[in-house]
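Exercise 3.2. Students should predict the tertiary structure of the chain below and write it as structure tokens, then compare their answer with the key that follows.

Predict this chain's 3D structure.
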Amino acid sequence: SSGFQAFLHLCWLNPDKQRRLGVVGTQGTLIFDEMSADAPLVIQHGHLEEQNNRWKAVGVSREVLAIAKAEPLGQVCNEFLNCIRQNTASQISSGWVGAELVGILCALNDSLEQGGKVIPV
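Answer key:
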């Protein structure tokens, strides 16, 4: 197994509206923030080092990635209609992607029911 882990935090009672996804890796953190008008896609570079029994952020930088502004559901609907018109398979989604997503969601549910146990997907 690859050692990949995913953590999901959901809170419907949060008083501020947030639509943010962060993917943490060895090269930095990719952050997609749908509510950010000026920088919806950002890479945060840097790492933590222990200094004097405290963790300190080192080499921190922020890189804003340019992406086209579009409404996500509208993009998916347009892709669906284009695939029908051209009788082609979708390049952004498929039944296989949907099936994998359902597997991930089922594993998250199983983990929740089992007190946070790691569930392989």
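Discussion points: The two ends are 10 Å apart (CA to CA). Residues 1-69 form one domain.
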